[in-house]
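Subject line: Sequence and fold of a protein, written as structure tokens
Area: Proteins and the way their chains fold up in space.
Start of record: The labelled sequence and token lines come straight after this line.
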Amino acid sequence: MNTGSSETNFAAVWPRGRRAVAHQALAERLPTLEGKKIAQLWDYLFRGDEIFPLLEQGLAQRFPGVQFVKYETFGSTHGDREHDVLDRMPETLRRLGVDAVISGMAC
């Protein structure tokens, strides 16, 4: 934009978009994973079959009595059935007595 001086002015735009969702408080963290049941969720896209066994091993060493509900129990959280899997998720987690979730995705 020319204002009659030798300076050039440019309009600036903030790179972030407007917030679409209000902030919500995070769920309270468990004080320990000892004796807890942890669900594994996966989108079946990147190495979950390798990573989840490593997580299980490390968490079991650190937190005695920890149990795992394997990702196969839930189905893929990505793809043509993802909406069905995710719609059922809250009830499935309650029915299985899950205390915490590890969600793995292809990132």
